[in-house]
Amino acid sequence: MKPLVLAAIVAISILFAFPARGQLVPATQPKDQETKYLMKEGTYLGFRQVNLSMGEIGFEVTISSNIKGKAAPTLEFRIDKPKGKKIGSLKIPDTADTTFNIKLTGQLRHAMGVHDLFLVAKGSGEFNIFGFAFIRNY
User: Fold this and answer.
1) What is the rounded radius of gyration, in angstroms, for the C-alpha atoms of the chain?
2) Residue 8 region, left (φ>0) first, then alpha (ψ -120 to 50), else beta?
3) Which of 30, 39, 76, 81 could form a disulfide bond with 121, CB atoms 3.0-4.6 angstroms apart?
4) CA–CA dist 90, 73 (Å, integer)
5) In this predicted model, what pLDDT tens digit does every residue of 89-102 receive, in sequence order?
6) Backbone phi, then psi, for 93, in 5-degree steps?
7) DSSP letter at 53?
8) Which residues contact 56 (CB under 8 A, 6 or more apart)?
9) Which letter, b or e, does each residue of 41-76 get, where b requires 16 or more Cβ atoms within 10 Å of its Cβ?
10) What is the DSSP letter of 73?
11) Among residues 70, 69, 65, 63, which one has the least CA distance to residue 119?
12) How would you class 123 by CB atoms within 10 Å of its CB: exposed for 0-12, middle for 13-18, buried for 19 or more?
Protein backbone atom coordinates (compact mmCIF):
# COMPACT_ATOMS: atom_id res chain seq x y z
CA MET A 1 0.00 0.00 0.00
CA LYS A 2 1.09 3.52 -0.59
CA PRO A 3 2.08 5.40 2.57
CA LEU A 4 -0.61 8.07 2.05
CA VAL A 5 -3.38 5.47 1.75
CA LEU A 6 -2.06 3.64 4.80
CA ALA A 7 -1.95 6.91 6.77
CA ALA A 8 -5.57 7.67 5.79
CA ILE A 9 -6.70 4.22 6.93
CA VAL A 10 -4.90 4.64 10.26
CA ALA A 11 -6.42 8.12 10.74
CA ILE A 12 -9.93 6.79 10.10
CA SER A 13 -9.41 3.86 12.46
CA ILE A 14 -8.49 6.31 15.24
CA LEU A 15 -12.09 7.52 15.21
CA PHE A 16 -13.48 4.09 15.99
CA ALA A 17 -13.62 2.60 19.46
CA PHE A 18 -13.05 -1.00 20.51
CA PRO A 19 -16.36 -2.78 21.01
CA ALA A 20 -17.57 -2.85 24.60
CA ARG A 21 -17.06 -6.10 26.45
CA GLY A 22 -20.17 -5.13 28.35
CA GLN A 23 -23.64 -5.50 27.00
CA LEU A 24 -25.03 -2.94 24.58
CA VAL A 25 -28.44 -2.11 25.98
CA PRO A 26 -31.17 -0.54 23.84
CA ALA A 27 -32.49 2.75 25.17
CA THR A 28 -35.57 2.54 27.37
CA GLN A 29 -37.23 5.10 25.14
CA PRO A 30 -36.74 3.90 21.55
CA LYS A 31 -37.90 7.21 20.07
CA ASP A 32 -34.73 8.89 21.46
CA GLN A 33 -32.42 6.47 19.61
CA GLU A 34 -29.99 6.87 22.50
CA THR A 35 -27.20 4.35 23.05
CA LYS A 36 -26.02 3.37 26.49
CA TYR A 37 -23.42 0.87 27.62
CA LEU A 38 -24.12 -1.30 30.64
CA MET A 39 -21.00 -1.46 32.78
CA LYS A 40 -20.34 -3.97 35.56
CA GLU A 41 -17.26 -5.58 37.14
CA GLY A 42 -14.65 -6.23 34.45
CA THR A 43 -16.41 -4.64 31.47
CA TYR A 44 -14.64 -1.89 29.55
CA LEU A 45 -14.94 0.57 26.70
CA GLY A 46 -11.83 1.15 24.61
CA PHE A 47 -10.75 4.01 22.38
CA ARG A 48 -7.85 3.56 19.95
CA GLN A 49 -4.89 5.87 19.58
CA VAL A 50 -6.00 8.80 21.74
CA ASN A 51 -3.50 11.66 21.71
CA LEU A 52 -3.24 12.67 25.37
CA SER A 53 -0.48 15.23 24.82
CA MET A 54 -2.63 17.82 23.02
CA GLY A 55 -3.79 19.70 26.11
CA GLU A 56 -6.53 17.38 27.33
CA ILE A 57 -6.19 16.97 31.05
CA GLY A 58 -9.39 15.22 31.95
CA PHE A 59 -12.52 13.44 30.93
CA GLU A 60 -16.25 13.90 31.39
CA VAL A 61 -18.48 10.84 31.47
CA THR A 62 -22.28 10.93 31.39
CA ILE A 63 -23.63 8.08 33.53
CA SER A 64 -26.71 6.81 35.30
CA SER A 65 -26.89 4.29 38.12
CA ASN A 66 -29.30 2.86 40.64
CA ILE A 67 -27.01 1.44 43.30
CA LYS A 68 -29.33 1.85 46.33
CA GLY A 69 -27.05 1.34 49.31
CA LYS A 70 -24.58 -1.03 47.63
CA ALA A 71 -20.89 -0.23 47.61
CA ALA A 72 -20.23 2.31 44.87
CA PRO A 73 -18.46 0.92 41.80
CA THR A 74 -15.54 2.82 40.26
CA LEU A 75 -14.62 3.65 36.70
CA GLU A 76 -10.89 3.35 36.07
CA PHE A 77 -9.08 5.08 33.20
CA ARG A 78 -6.25 2.89 31.90
CA ILE A 79 -3.88 3.18 28.95
CA ASP A 80 -2.65 0.69 26.35
CA LYS A 81 -4.75 -2.27 27.58
CA PRO A 82 -7.65 -2.92 30.00
CA LYS A 83 -5.16 -3.96 32.71
CA GLY A 84 -2.59 -1.31 31.74
CA LYS A 85 -1.34 1.66 33.73
CA LYS A 86 -4.11 3.41 35.66
CA ILE A 87 -4.16 7.16 34.98
CA GLY A 88 -7.20 7.93 37.14
CA SER A 89 -10.46 6.67 38.61
CA LEU A 90 -13.92 7.94 39.52
CA LYS A 91 -16.43 6.69 42.09
CA ILE A 92 -19.84 6.17 40.55
CA PRO A 93 -22.55 7.89 42.60
CA ASP A 94 -26.14 6.67 42.93
CA THR A 95 -28.07 8.85 40.47
CA ALA A 96 -31.47 7.16 40.93
CA ASP A 97 -31.52 6.34 37.20
CA THR A 98 -31.14 9.96 36.11
CA THR A 99 -28.21 10.98 33.93
CA PHE A 100 -25.34 12.75 35.64
CA ASN A 101 -21.97 14.09 34.44
CA ILE A 102 -18.87 13.12 36.41
CA LYS A 103 -15.44 14.55 35.71
CA LEU A 104 -11.86 13.38 36.09
CA THR A 105 -9.48 16.35 35.98
CA GLY A 106 -6.04 17.34 37.17
CA GLN A 107 -2.61 15.91 36.52
CA LEU A 108 -3.09 12.45 35.06
CA ARG A 109 -0.11 10.17 35.65
CA HIS A 110 1.39 8.52 32.54
CA ALA A 111 -1.04 10.45 30.33
CA MET A 112 1.43 11.76 27.76
CA GLY A 113 1.57 10.85 24.08
CA VAL A 114 -0.64 8.56 22.01
CA HIS A 115 -2.25 5.60 23.79
CA ASP A 116 -5.23 3.30 23.58
CA LEU A 117 -7.59 4.46 26.35
CA PHE A 118 -9.79 2.07 28.34
CA LEU A 119 -12.66 2.88 30.72
CA VAL A 120 -12.82 -0.16 33.04
CA ALA A 121 -15.63 -0.88 35.53
CA LYS A 122 -14.56 -2.16 38.97
CA GLY A 123 -16.53 -3.17 42.06
CA SER A 124 -20.06 -4.38 42.59
CA GLY A 125 -23.04 -2.62 41.12
CA GLU A 126 -23.99 -1.72 37.58
CA PHE A 127 -24.14 1.63 35.83
CA ASN A 128 -24.73 2.97 32.33
CA ILE A 129 -22.47 5.18 30.24
CA PHE A 130 -24.26 7.53 27.84
CA GLY A 131 -21.42 9.80 26.76
CA PHE A 132 -17.72 10.56 27.00
CA ALA A 133 -15.74 13.75 26.30
CA PHE A 134 -12.36 15.37 26.86
CA ILE A 135 -12.06 18.36 29.19
CA ARG A 136 -9.46 21.01 28.36
CA ASN A 137 -7.60 23.04 30.97
CA TYR A 138 -8.05 26.77 30.26
Assistant:
1) 16
2) alpha
3) 39
4) 9
5) 889 988 888 888 88
6) -80, 160
7) T
8) 134, 135, 136
9) eebbbbbeebebeeebebbebebbbebeeeeebebb
10) P
11) 63
12) middle
Burial environment of residue 122 by CB neighbours within 10 A (0 to 12, 13 to 18, 19 or more): middle
Per residue in 13-61, pLDDT (tens digit) is 443 434 434 433 444 444 455 688 889 999 999 999 988 876 567 888 9
User: Could you give the CA distance from residue 127 to residue 46 in angstroms, rounded to a whole number?
Assistant: 17
The model's pTM: 0.70
DSSP summary character for residue 107: -
Looking at residue 105, the DSSP 8-state letter turns out to be: -
Number of Cβ within 10 Å of residue 87's Cβ equals 21
The CA distance from 96 to 99, in Å, is: 9
Residues 138, 126: Cα–Cα separation, whole Å: 33
